Structures are given as structure tokens and as C-alpha cells.
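Figure 2 data, in text form.
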Amino acid sequence: MTDTQDELTVAGYYDSLSGVSQYIRMYFGQTLLAHGTCFFVMSEDGPVLVTNRHNFTGRNNITGEVLHKKGGIPDHAVVTMHGPHEVHYHIDLMDQANPEATAWTEHPTLGTQADIVALPVKEMTNIVGEINSVSLENDWHRWDIGSELHVIGYPYGQIGGPFPIWSKGFIASEPDVDVSGLPVFLIDCRSRPGQSGSPVFAHFRAGTVIEYKGQDWQAKRSMNYFVGVYSGRLRSDSDLGLVWKRSCVEELVNHAVAHGTQHRMDLRRHKFSATRYREFSLYRYIHNDIDEVD
């Protein structure tokens, strides 16, 4: 893109779900600690940001181990929304006056056990709408083991330019059975760092035959169904990953809307900024992103 261009143009068709996942970076001061993915859920009270808890805490959500190789814990995060200009939403994660208070809302019953958190962001109402958010309405389908799903996020950062990468996977554990007593199922998917916090969807193309209430139906148009939130692999040498179920996300969002964040940050500490959209550069990806983040 040249400096004289006023609009971000996309050559050809792109899927609407590619506008749902958002790129998020975690920092300590000016030091980039990690890449991740987040998304917004629309509620009656405006958009609610959802991502993995470990993205914000910088720690393994099970063991508490610090994730960054140099021990860095994020003190702020930046969400990037794409367009002719990249809009950056800056989130303070720490309050120096009250370090124990969190800037986000945790699950009402699972608390720190759930690797998903929510942050009401009513101030983003003019930026987030139905076209680039997740809807929790229309719980119309049942999923079975082996069903095909897509994890849509940002492995290793913005390697897909303005749009996320789609990773295909399959339900690997019985979806009605909670893994380790938590509202989680397993997915067999070759995911990578940066996809933590990605929304997981079932995606039906026109003509696909699906079952609904015991009958077979043929989709007349593309249909998408939000299934849950991806939160990383069980082990680094395995393709088995964890997905927090849709029902758990709904409970979290409802709680966040009803009670707000556990610690109400002054909105002046959450700020917007904008930079001109940068074309994706393979050179920049290889020489910067890979070297900069473990």
C-alpha cells in the first residue's frame, strides 16, 4: 500500500468470520512479551472482549509458571482492529496503586480455574458491531465427536496480513463430557503459539447437509456456529488442544455485563491510537516476529 491510498482494499471475496478474530499483543513497558488472539461478544450492554486468562496474566493457567523465557509479566495489552488505518485499543492490565486487582472479569464460579476472561468495552461500540463480533444466540445444533471445527486466530502474529489464519481440527473427546471436571473438550488441531484466545467455529458452506432436531437439512447459505474458545495445546509435542465450551463463555459474558470488571479501571487509562495500515511483509515476519518472541 502506498502513502497516497486512502482505503484498505481486498482483492476478491473474504469470509465474514475472518473479521471476527482480533490480533492482541501483550507488553511489559515497551517490551513485546507475546502474541495472541481475542474477539468480541455482543451483549445488551455493548461489546465484551474475550480472550484467554493466560494471555493477560503471562502465566500457565494450570501450573502458574511464567510463560516468557525472561520472566516478563504483561502490564498492558494492545488490540489491533484492521481497516484503512489500524486502530489500536490499549488496555492497562495492572493498577500500580492496587496490584492485586485485575482489569478483567473472571468466571463467576470457576474463577482462576477457567482460562478465559472478559472485559466489557462499551467505549468500542462504534467500532465493534454484528459484522465483527460473536453472537451467543441461536443455540441450534448438537456436535459429535469427530465433527470438523476451525480455530481462527493469529499464529506467530500477523502472518496472514490483516486477516487471521484458519486452522482445521476435529472434536477429539466426547463434547458432552467435561475434561478434568471443567467445561472443556479436546480438539485435534495443528495449532501454534499466538492462537490462544481464538474463537472456534463450525463452518457450513451452502449445500452442506446438517442434522437439526433429528432431521437432515441442507444449508441454503454459509452458516457459522460459535463453539468455544481455544486455549492452547496439552503439550508442546501434541496436536491435542483445549476448547472452553460455548456455555462457559456465555456464563462469563453474562457475569461481566451484570457486574462489570472486578476492578473498575478509569477509562482514561484505556486509550485508542491509530497508525496507517502496513502491508504484510514476509521479510518483517521472518526477521522480526520470530526472533522477537519465543
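Caption note: The CA atoms of residues 175 and 188 lie 13 Å apart.
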